[in-house]
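Submission sheet (multi-component)
Chains listed below:
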Amino acid sequence: MQPFSALSLFRQGLSGQKGWAPQWRSPEPKAEYDAVVIGGGGHGLGAAYYLAKEHGLRNIAVLEKGWIGGGNTGRNTTIIRSNYLFDESAALYDHALKLWEGLSQTLNYNVMFSQRGVLMLAHTVHDVQVFQRHIHANRVNGVDNEWLTPEAAKAFCPPLNIASNIRYPVLGGALQRRGGTARHDAVAWGYARAADALGVDILQNCEVTGIERDAAGAVAAVETSRGRIRTRKVGVSAAGHTSVVLGMAGVRLPLESYPLQALVSEPVKPVFPCVVMSNTIHAYISQSDKGELVIGAGTDVYTSYTQRGGLHINTHTLDAICELFPQFRRMRMLRNWGGIVDVTPDRSPILGKTPVPGLYVNCGWGTGGFKATPGAGHLLAWTMAKDEPHPINAPFTIERFRDGYLIDEAAAAAVAH
Amino acid sequence: MLLIPCPYCGERPELEFVYGGQAHIARPADPSVLNDQEWAEYLYMRDNPKGPHAERWRHTHGCGRFFNLVRDTSSDTVLAAYRTGQPRPALPAGGKPR
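Outcome: structure written.
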């Protein structure tokens, strides 16, 4: 691996930046691996990296049916925060946030993590009360979150319209200053490069078509579009397609896959200093370092695997954005797209073992998986290596739906995770 | 936006409808005899197929009635529409549109 530094950049500059090698190999699949991760997004690549880095496994493959980072890793709005209500969730998401804080150094790859602050707006008395409860719960759990009056919110985010005569006036907001954004592609590439340097085989255009189990029911091999691969450990990190992949092993999950859309504007000069979210009128917005306003909203109403949705969802979102930020009314939107998100009944993820020995799952992140990328990878690796969950992901089992231990962030926030 | 064929009113835009999730999930006749696993299956487990999916819709801003669609979730093509209470219709192989 060629290390990235100011010095190496300068040296390469002397030869026209022509001396760089590919950042990861494109190997042929081996006949057998000690562990296989299905899904080459940030979560799956992260799991492979931590398996190699922290658990000493070397013979690992990541199977990706398309190209790495081409699924939800490349389709989200890159918002990172950890201000969740329940203890289990706060521990999980803050574990990820702490890993984000050192990730560029860990990977020697600039993931452009920017703690510019995530401001969640309150528009009703109910919002205010719920956010106050969130703030107190977060602070008890060691997660930073503070209340801003409308004037303080305006000072923090000058484009915000705090006029009292709009349909949903801003009554205040909850600010997590440690929250922010990161460069989504760089996260996938950084993990891929670091994992590859530790010997992980990243197999792109390699779609899993079956999971073989032995006489005892345990995982024995996976069938792929590039041949059969023997392995005793499989971690599935396939986001919207998790039901399909785990169905190959006969595992049923409480998941439904919905399209979630996002869009970006034409690029402009820096106009937007932070991330603003509104659950009530259902929109969120930030500005990328390229200058585009990155805008997202809620899912379409029906389940689908098409990676596209209805234009009326985007229109509704832009109505809300234009009400809060009237100066953006004349901006043109450049692109919109969809990703497929796997949603659980309680809107908390499933991360742990399955009923099949040797088969592990990381799914159900719904509309908010990007923020968890390093944490999810780290905990999936731990669970696969030790065949038992880390204390942080121990509550996030499939069995919680049988046993009644839901982690009901759906009820806590109602929408927009 | 989907164009949804209500069996009572004909084709209308998706905005007139509310989605009701997977169809043909019957409430257990005697819930007290179910064990926890069976109850979780009824409450939470869903097929979530990539392909034909039987699902409930309600024409909220029209006739107000519930009905079922079979829709291919890999293309969003509507394959069949039928009234509540009727069995899921058999589809021609390959899932041709209506």
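Remark: Chain A touches chain B through 24 residues (CB under 8 Å).
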